[in-house]
Amino acid sequence: MPLFGNTFSPKKTPPRKSASLSNLHNLDRSTREVELGLDYGTPTMNLAGQSLKFENGQWIAETGISEDVDRREAQRLRRRNQQLEEENNLLRLKVDILLDMLSETTAESHLMEKELEELKSISHRRK
Questions:
Q1: Of 11, 28, 66, 95, which has the highest C-beta tally within 10 A?
Q2: What are the pLDDT digits (tens) for 12-21?
């Protein structure tokens, strides 16, 4: 018999509450919107001073004075991105060429070491 009584005696769980008696889940979407006021309109947000709205699955900048500025900024960023991609491709090409040169030099070095070892062994045999 345990010293402090039964060591494992879980409490009984309370019975579950009955399901909702509301019939709102049976209503179609338009009726629910009218009844509950769920017509929110298009989502909008303000990010860094730029107002954006969500339409047809994409965030679109709302028209205004900054639209022309945004268009110029986007073009500038596209040009800069293109320049960086070209520079990156050139650098990758240079790295590939340098790795080929390193491989060729290493192979030549190993061949020369091998020839040197052979010449040393031949000179030792003659003595």
A1: 66
A2: 887 777 666 6
